[in-house]
Amino acid sequence: MQDKIFKALLILSAVLIPVIGGGIILSLTVDASGAFKEFGFWEFVFSDDWITTAGKEKYGALPFITGTLLTTALALLMCIPFSLPVALFTGEYFKGRKIAAVLGTVIDLLAGIPSIIYGLWGFYVLRGTFMYLDLSPQGSGILTASFVLAIMIVPYAASLSAEFIKMVPAELKEGAYAMGATRAEVIRRVIFPMAGSGIFSAFILAIGRALGETMTVTMLIGNTNQMPETLRTTGNTMASIIANQFGEADGLKLSSLIAIGLLLFLITAIINIIGKILIRRARHV
Amino acid sequence: MNKVKFRIFKSRLLFIMVCVLSGITAIPLVAILGEVLIKGWNQLGWSFITEATPNAYKAMIAAQAGEDIPGGIANGIVGTFLMLFLAAVVAIPVGILCGICLSEYRKSWFATFVSYLTDLLQGTPSIIIGIITYIWVVVPMKGYSAIAGSVALFIMMLPLIIRSTEETMKVLPDTLKEAGLALGGSYWRVMLKVMVPAALGSIFTGILLAISRVVGETAPLMFTALGGAAISWNMTKPMSAVPLLIWEFFNDPNLQNLIWGASLFLLVFVLCLNLLAKQVAKKWKV
Question: What are phi and psi of B268, to 5 degrees?
Fold first, then answer.
């Protein structure tokens, strides 16, 4: 009898997850339908209008989708040259040694810093540097936001990649050394091909993080609702427009913001599921 | 021979580059910690953690007189702990039960499906959790409240606890369970009194990491708990939290002097939780 109750509790708690997941999609779709009905789905996605004047309201998601994709792509580009070395450092060159553990802790702490503190640091420290270097006229903008995003996703990409680099069998590496390969050649010809799919999925998951990052981007991107023209200009991402305007929104605007939320949810969900499927496969080879 | 030397040179070059670039990666941590420590150290004090946030007018007067801004972040500290406590009290048992379920029925399609869904939920941007809690809790309750904030934190913590429980239970040897059952223990007793205690170290690590991840979250609280200037214990009313206060200080020029103290408090708290989790993981490795 008690076993039955216990098993029922187990199933019940597991059912909660699909309920929450399904509930998120359902609630967002219902509340976003107002915007989709008014403007049409594709029209909403591909319109770059953001007119809040009462009576002439017109909302489109394109500038924000562009902003999100742009910052994420830039952050990914900037994070690769740092996360791969860190992964090699902890997973290959200094595997199992104290210095690798130290760098591993540093990376873990970097992952633990709340995003609002990254935002503060970017706003009060980096912004001045960016202006000084003439990388961006106001200091804040797409480039600044992407730069800090890159720092934020390095830990995710690095620690996961290191896990797969460590898993490469020693016999394979030893075989290559025995044939006269240098360490660099072993890394390129043995480690990367063997750990490649795992490293790839690590970067996919890092993309997933960058897509939805909110506070840092909101504090650094400058928050303008037009299409970004160059990387130096300000913009907005899907997450930052919601963070900025959700609080005082109602009616059609609220519905449009929720519609942007739904799109963001779907994009991150697709990226994350691809990443997780790949990573589970890579782990069980 | 020259070719061999070139290959060795290339290999050394790669090694040096890896070391240099890895070193550079550590710079942001040092820079951020240093910045927050230097600017925030003076502000931290007894009154900073026991007094509530001053209103903008008081702060403005003090700033104009050249004095330190009075008050602190006690309202945020109380709010953070209350909301976190309520969220954790629900999320820990539910998460552990769900983790057990996913590990026990690991061969069924349902468990695989839920497991993937948990991953998906874990990757959901925190701002979306904020919106959804707004729709689910704030709108029906007709107002912002600390309960809504707790619900948002609960949804964020749950997947982390589930996954850490599931992963640990999966690596426990089957013989442990079989021995318990062979001794005549009923299924639920074996599960809760043998299996869970055996996995406790890793589950505890998961819980600590879950807490450290949500304690600094701002986005899911902005449209749920909203914030408030006074110390409040009423969960049905809006409540502040430390990250919310930082956001408030960031947006209010009069209160900007309080930013760094609050950030230092949050940063130290989060990083200590992280280090503690690492220690626990090392000590109680399954």
Answer: -60, -45
B66 within a domain of the structure (yes/no): no
- Find the residue in B nearest to A101 (Cα): B278
Owning domain of residue B130: 74-283
Domain range list for chain A: 2-51, 61-283
Do B5 and B109 reside in the same domain of the chain? no
Complex prediction ipTM: 0.93
Locate tokens 């500290």: which residue? B77
User: Which CATH number fits the domain A61-283, given the four candidates 1.10.3720.10, 3.40.630.30, 3.40.50.2000, 1.10.760.10?
Assistant: 1.10.3720.10
Task: With respect to residue B193, please indicate whether it lies within any of the assigned structural domains.
Answer: yes
Is residue A31 within 8 angstroms of chain B, CB to CB?
A: yes
**Which among B50, B22, B29 has a CA at the least distance from the CA of B261?**
B50
Residues B129, B16, single domain; the answer is no
Q: Is residue B180 part of a domain?
A: yes
DSSP string, B197-258: HHHHHHHHHHHHHHHHHHHT--HHHHTTTB--SS----TTS-B--HHHHHHHHHH-GGGGGG
**B11 near A CB under 8 A:** yes
Whole-prediction pTM: 0.94
The answer to whether residues B107 and B163 belong to one domain is yes
Predicted confidence pLDDT, tens digits, chain B (286 residues): 688 999 999 999 999 999 999 999 999 999 999 999 999 998 888 888 888 888 778 777 877 777 777 788 999 999 999 999 999 999 999 999 999 999 999 999 999 999 999 999 999 999 999 999 999 999 999 999 999 999 999 999 999 999 999 999 999 998 999 999 999 989 999 999 999 999 999 999 999 999 999 999 999 999 999 988 888 899 999 999 999 999 999 998 888 888 999 999 999 999 999 999 999 988 887 6
Instruction: Please identify which residue in the block is written with the tokens 């020693």.
Output: A170
* Contact yes or no for B274 and A264 at CB 8 A: no
Identity of the residue in B25, B186, B219 whose CB atom sits nearest the CB atom of A154: B25
Do residue B138 and residue B228 come from a single domain? yes
What is the reported pLDDT for B247?
94
Residues B174, B238, single domain; the answer is: yes
Same domain, B122 and B198: yes
For residue B231, the distance in angstroms to the closest alpha carbon of chain A comes to 22
What pLDDT shows up at residue B1? 61
Taking the CB of residue A249, how many other CB atoms lie within 10 A of it? 17
The pLDDT of A184-190, averaged and rounded, is 95
Buried b / exposed e across B31-66, counting CB within 10 Å, b at 16+? ebbebbeebbeebbeeebeebbbbeeeebbebbeee
CB contact under 8 A, A82 and B131: no
**Do B89 and B4 share a domain, yes or no?**
no
Residues in chain A with CB shorter than 8 Å from the CB of B127 are 212, 214, 239, 242-243, 261, 264
Q: Does B281 contact A at CB distance below 8 Å?
A: no
B117 and B8 within one domain: no
> For chain B, what is the domain count?
2
